[in-house]
Amino acid sequence: MDDAGIIELYFSRDENAIKETDKKYGVYCTTIAMGLLHLREDAQECVNDTYLSAWNQIPPFVPECLRTFLGRLTRNIAICRYRRNNAMKRRDSLDIPFSELEECLPSDRNVEQTFDAKQLGRYISEWLDGLAEQDRMIFVRRYWLGDKAVVLAKMTGMTESGMSRKLTILRNDLRKYLTKKGENI
User: Fold this and answer.
1) Is pLDDT above 70 for 113?
2) How far apart are CA 171 and CA 149, in angstroms?
3) What span, in angstroms and rounded, lies between the C-alpha atoms of 103 and 182?
4) Radius of gyration of the chain (CA)
5) The pTM is what?
6) Can you give the pLDDT at residue 103?
7) Residue 145 in contact with residue 78, Cβ under 8 Å?
8) What CATH architecture is 3-85?
């Protein structure tokens, strides 16, 4: 079933919307949740919460891209669960990809003064569009799906140190791009 048909099922409040969503996007959502949580049971609960959230938001909301909408819901739910599960630990591995990006992104105060969140998102999307396909895949898998550098290295045939260098180069390039865009505002 296509996305428009699935969305129509949500609008008619037909419970088959969940079944069709799971059939088409279940593996995708589970992959996102597993990349962040690494526990099948937690990942499955996140996917179920994603479907509930989609059910509660559609209608009135009509997602432009159902896949992206579900991916964002899954990711946000998985991050919340991860942080709740690891609240008492000193440092969690999910924070590592985000801390790597901190040097690229403006501070909260600067964000309020210079960027709004949507504009920052547009700049990052523009930057990603300008990357080679493999670089874009590496960046998205690391900072959206939370894949570890060692996994990305194996996936691309690079060494782990080579992948670390590649990620540093990408972050530096993003920082330069955002700095340049920030000056043009």
Assistant:
1) no
2) 14
3) 15
4) 18
5) 0.61
6) 55
7) no
8) Orthogonal Bundle (1.10)
